[in-house]
Amino acid sequence: MSITTKTGDKGYTSVAGRRVKKDSKIIEAIGTIDELQAIIEEVEIQKDLYEIMGAIACGNKITNYELRITNLENEIEKLEKKLKPVTKFLIFKKEKARKLNWVRTVVRRAERKVVALRNYKLRITNYELIVIYLNRLSDYFYLLSRQKE
Predict the structure, then answer these.
(1) Rounded to whole angstroms, how far apart are CA atoms 106 and 112?
(2) In whole angstroms, what is the distance from residue 110 CA to residue 40 CA?
(3) How far is CA 87 from CA 90, 102, 114, 141, in A?
(4) What's the Cα-to-Cα distance from 147 to each of 97, 100, 117, rounded to whole Å?
(5) From the record, what ranges are coiled-coil (predicted)?
(6) Rounded to whole angstroms, how far apart are CA atoms 98 and 133?
(7) Which neighbouring-strand residues pair with 19?
(8) Is 77 exposed, middle or buried (0-12, 13-18, 19+ CB in 10 A)?
(9) pTM value?
(10) Rounded-to-integer distance, Cα 78 and Cα 72, Å
């Protein structure tokens, strides 16, 4: 089967067997999370993001997210202990720090897009856990960028 189906040429795409506008809130959220997984280098987080996209698109149940959130919080705590408190606005100069900060901003955008789905009448299982996970993920990448600076 070819990647070129021409079924999206009129501004619609398929999600879970239904046609939706490409500029719909659900496509914005899924597309931003897809962009995020493409720039993240950590495979486990990429897997989490694919699972989240499935939950948004199809209502798939996400599993073990309480544990994943706890693990992120533990990593955040470890990083916070290593870093000095922030006393001014940070400008990242090192390449790795800038990339991680860019990832953080895409996570924040993904979080905003998911929050915008709150009243979209979708069957998103564990919606609150998705929002919490993305929130912690942005904190994690912020601290990683500080560490690399």
Answers:
(1) 10
(2) 13
(3) 9, 21, 31, 19
(4) 8, 10, 33
(5) 26-89
(6) 22
(7) 14
(8) exposed
(9) 0.91
(10) 10
Residue 52 is encoded by which pair of tokens? 């989240």
Cross-strand pairs, 14: 19
| Per-residue pLDDT at 138 exceeds 80 | yes
**3-state DSSP assignment of residue 120:** coil
Domain architecture of the chain: domains with CATH: 12-148 (1.20.1200.10)
Identify residue 131 by its one-letter amino acid code.
V
Both tokens of 99, joined, read 């990339």
Centre a 10 Å sphere on the Cβ of residue 71 and count the other Cβ atoms it contains.
Answer: 14
The burial of 85, by beta-carbon neighbours within 10 Å (0-12 exposed, 13-18 middle, 19 or more buried), is given as exposed
Q: What is the mean pLDDT of residues 77-98?
A: 94
Neighbouring residues of 37: CB distance < 8 A, sequence distance ≥ 6: 45, 46, 49, 50, 53
Q: State the Cα–Cα distance between residues 123 and 121, nearest whole angstrom.
A: 7
